[in-house]
Design brief:
single chain, about 625 residues, alpha+beta, Pnp Oxidase, Chain A, UbiD C-terminal domain-like, nine-stranded antiparallel sheet, 32 strands, globular
Length: about 625
């Protein structure tokens, strides 16, 4: 169902017992983040902070459950959206004639035409209050983490237009508050907003930009969705809410924003100005994204509805609220991917620990040899899939969301020498582990069931063997930088050993440990040796997975111990010989004083049973309380 602004959605959340109102004052600087982090990681309710020190309440954790993300896109269950999209595509493909005739003859197309955005010639509820002398301090903008460079708007729907084609775009790019009427605009080099900026720069003209906050939650999701360039995000929003999006013209520029947005920040970017330093920022990778230079956005006007609610989200060590936005993408885009890219795809999944772009699991219906590699090659070049670092393709009757079963399946269906496809290509600019900015190694894993033609020359996989076979081997780690190990997977006949290694005082620690394993035959039965830093709990599989995916370049950090045994180095590279070519970021955690402050306030918040701060555990991995680890740390 469509919602008329966030206050309408708040009402529905409350009716479904999915909202907690917090009347106690909570500081938008650091404290709201700490509360949201605790609640989100425990799959708690949406939070409405009514006392923020401003005239605007803050709504956060809006999307942080299966129930609420379905409500946000107007459904009882996300699978309903997938079914509707599949039916629409099936109708299109089942109609005789050319593609044009298929679309033009469809009853579904008429329905689609009814959800195209429409431009109104009057003011919207988003313009009930107009501030022509804009002051960003009227908004309760969060400072999320202690080493953030300042306050950041975290759920902005940024509207831009290409001056040459007239194509519009709505993207979600964080905005750091610089002063009362300017922000930085963090659109990365691969994003449509950056493309539009370059087009305005060539014309030497000021670029109009308008930022909408709130409105129907379907708008927010659509701004995050991986739509092809030049596809209007409000078409998707209209489809999701089953009602076309009404747009109104801004007060100080010619861009159009949703009629029922809660808050609109209008302005421009002057391409002739020097870029401004933006960041660091505690990002969705779970690490601080490093400071860089981005355009300066000048605010010319702020408008809002009389009942405006300020929307916010936090990102950090997963899972966070964005994990449920990713779930929505899995369901909504499965059919389009199947029917436009790879018809053999049956399902795909982006695990929380992979922070959307570090790991993608794809399940296919395999019918011929080489099909797994074909899918890998295709997806590595498909839209935003190009940012994927690890891409695993499986086949058969396997639940790709049951990680232990999936892991066993993968190890039983790969020859580590022949079924791994190493390559190089573009990476998300937030990836800190590659030697070069936004460019580095990738790994495709063909873990599909192998057909006879693919088995020639394959290595026969032996069982892990009884645990007692490994006990004598472990004595060789005495006196080495190995500080701990996990044999529990070997107990379950999964041939994986996890090592915690202290590299902080020994530049050659990884090489020495790897040589010990190789020399004493550790690669005979152990197919994977996973190395993490000594501060990481080797029994916390979620954190281990997140650390390895985030801290590795597949081409650089995967070394063969034997023909069918692989060592993966997931430790901090700033401690390796020669240091690292770039700054190595710290992980994202709350400060101790913030944790203690919220501990004291907890009972007064009315949230329910006390929840321990997640940062207490993850602070063990934090380094020296700094936002960055400098090159050549040793």
């Amino acid at each position: 169902m469509p919602y008329s602004g966030l206050s309408d959605f708040v009402k529905h959340l409350e009716q479904r017992d999915e909202l907690i109102r917090i009347k106690t004052f909570v500081d938008p600087v650091l404290e709201i983040t700490e509360i949201s982090d605790r609640v989100t990681k425990n799959i708690g309710k949406a939070l409405l902070f009514e006392n923020t020190g401003t005239d605007f309440p803050i709504l956060i954790n809006t999307f942080g459950s299966d129930k609420r993300i379905a409500m946000a896109v107007g459904r009882e269950d996300l699978n309903e959206v997938g079914t509707e999209i599949e039916k629409l595509f099936s109708n299109v493909l089942g109609t005789p004639g050319s593609l044009f005739k298929k679309f033009s003859s469809l009853p579904s197309l008429i329905k689609m035409a009814g959800i195209l955005p429409v431009r109104l010639k009057r003011k919207g509820t988003c313009q009930q209050v107009i501030h022509r002398n804009p002051d960003l301090s009227i908004l309760p903008v969060l400072k999320c983490w202690p080493h953030d460079a300042g306050r950041f708007i975290t759920l902005p729907m940024v509207h831009t237009v290409n001056p040459q084609t007239g194509n519009t775009n709505v993207g979600m790019y964080r905005m750091q508050i610089l002063d009362l009427n300017t922000t930085a605009m963090h659109w990365q080099r691969h994003k449509t907003g950056a493309t539009h900026f370059e087009a305005w720069k060539k014309l030497n003209l000021k670029m109009p930009v308008s930022v909408a906050l709130g409105g129907d939650p379907a708008y927010t999701y659509s701004a995050t969705a991986p739509l092809p360039e030049n596809i209007d995000e409000y078409i998707l929003a209209g489809f999701l809410r089953k009602k076309k999006v009404s747009l109104v013209k801004c007060i100080t520029n010619d861009l159009y924003v949703p009629f029922d947005a809660d808050i609109v920040i209008e302005g421009y970017i002057d391409p002739t100005e020097e870029l401004v330093r933006e960041g660091p920022f505690g990002d969705h990778t779970g690490f601080y994204s490093l400071a860089d230079f981005y355009p300066r956005f000048h605010v010319t006007c702020i408008t809002h509805s009389k009942k405006a609610v300020y929307p916010a989200t936090i990102v950090g060590i997963p899972p966070q609220e964005d994990a449920w936005l990713t779930k929505a993408t899995e369901r909504i885009f499965l059919t389009p991917i199947k029917l436009t890219l790879q018809p053999e795809i049956e399902d795909f999944h982006l695990p929380d620990a992979g922070v959307a772009h570090n790991l993608v699991i794809v399940k296919i219906n395999k019918t011929y040899p080489g099909q797994g590699m074909k899918v890998i090659n295709s997806l590595f070049g498909a839209g935003q899939m190009m940012f994927t670092k690890y891409l695993v393709v499986v086949s058969g009757n396997i639940d790709i969301r049951n990680y232990k079963v999936l892991f066993k399946h993968i190890l039983l269906n790969i020859d580590l020498e022949k079924d791994l496809f190493f390559s190089r290509g573009p990476l998300d600019v937030l990836d800190h582990s590659s030697d070069a900015f936004s460019f580095g190694g990738k790994l495709g894993v063909d873990a599909t069931f192998k057909l006879p033609e693919e088995l020639a020359g394959k290595t026969i996989i032996e069982n892990a063997g009884p645990l007692q076979d490994y006990i004598p081997f472990l004595k060789y780690f005495e006196g080495t930088p190995v500080t701990g190990f996990n044999l529990n997977l070997l107990k379950e006949n999964i041939p994986v050993l996890i090592l915690a290694i202290d590299c902080s005082k020994d530049q050659g620690a990884i090489e020495r440990v790897r040589e010990i394993i190789k020399h004493y035959g550790g690669g005979k039965y152990i197919r994977l040796i996973l190395a993490v830093d000594h501060s990481v709990d080797p029994f916390d599989y979620h954190i281990i997975t997140w650390q390895i995916l985030g801290n590795t370049d597949p081409q650089r950090d995967h070394k063969y111990i034997s023909q069918n045994s692989l060592f993966i180095d997931g430790t901090i590279k700033a401690y390796r010989k020669g240091g690292f070519s770039r700054k190595w970021p710290n992980i994202v955690c709350s400060a101790e004083e913030t944790i203690k402050s919220i501990d004291r306030k907890w009972e007064a918040l009315g949230i329910g049973a006390f929840i321990t701060s997640p940062s207490i555990q993850t602070k063990k991995i934090e380094r020296d309380g700094a936002d960055e680890i400098i090159v050549n740390a040793i």
